[in-house]
């Protein structure tokens, strides 16, 4: 059972509430289950392309195989099914998590069965697509479970912990597995990854059920349309949704071509590896963790403004980096600052997504919101390429800074500067319940 994070009869400080959340079984479960989400992503996005290239598969075929990642982008289209239908065991969300984990274990084991040198990459591609489909479905259920099981005061710290463990799993499946496969075989690696889902299945079984009993949609039509009607009927719905799209615009533009930028500036592969794989990763995880915590200690509104302001100027280091000779210390500092502020914004923004999602339709609404957020990331690469070609690197990074301003403009529309907790217009949001208790 979850630990209570506050006593309405006894006033407590935000720091006391934060310390109490550390004892929550819900946070522990939600965080550890993120490992199950990162494993298949690292396998499909990183490990399989490396595997295929290492055995001599044509780069054009590998490019086509990257389409196996499509389910992560399209998951909103079947998320209503996971809102509407309840598995016959382990509850509405944990049941779906268990089903997808069993499927992931099966198809990853099937991938091990093709050996280390498969006769055709298309077999690997077909299995990878199945893994991606069930992984995206697992993400739907995991996100919905997090929305429903976490209390208002638990969301901030859970965001940071989820991100750290998720990245760790990506490293295991997408980095460590490549090293092990080089020493032994891909068949062994895939077999070990498949077996990893078994203890995660046990964790799903032991995870707590949400304290609040949620009535699922009664028809498929209701599951498809009611989440949209509820979301768009809120006060200032359009301002909030446009903000969801624009808040990370500056970061997405700046990150899209960061690796080619460092190449053009003359930095070696070692310099780039240290900057992106070590400094950047640590800074991003630290920022995400602190960004989530800030929402508990200072309030979501204050966090969105502080992190958003820092995001606007996060690329200023790259402006100067483009104009000076090679300077490793300055490059590491610029990338570390940008990665840290990106993580801060991600932490605060992730808590906002939790608060925007109604628990009855948590699968569909969370998938829709994350889909809207990812739109800018999809188009940032092509747009950035044309901008750099037209105006050069220095002017491009100035433009990314300007691109962060519209997000703050729309933030002011529903959360003016100085407001601790924005009212987001949904009936079961934690802040509105807290105000009623007061």
Describe the structure in your own words.
With 438 residues, the protein is mainly alpha-helical. It folds into two domains: 14-216, MFS general substrate transporter like domains (Growth Hormone, Chain: A); 221-437, Up-down Bundle (Growth Hormone, Chain: A), CATH 1.20.1250. Helices cover 75% and strands 0% of the residues. The chain is built from 20 helices and no strands. The chain has helices spanning 14-21, 25-54, 59-65, 70-74, 79-84, 94-113, 121-149, 155-183, 186-206, 220-232, 237-246, 249-256, 258-264, 269-297, 300-312, 316-321, 328-356, 362-403, 405-414, 430-437. The longest helix is centred in the C-terminal third of the chain and has 42 residues, at 362-403. The two termini are 24 Å apart. The model is unreliable at 1-11 and 427-438 (pLDDT under 50).
Briefly summarize what is shown.
This protein is mostly helical and 438 residues long. The chain is 75% helix and 0% strand.
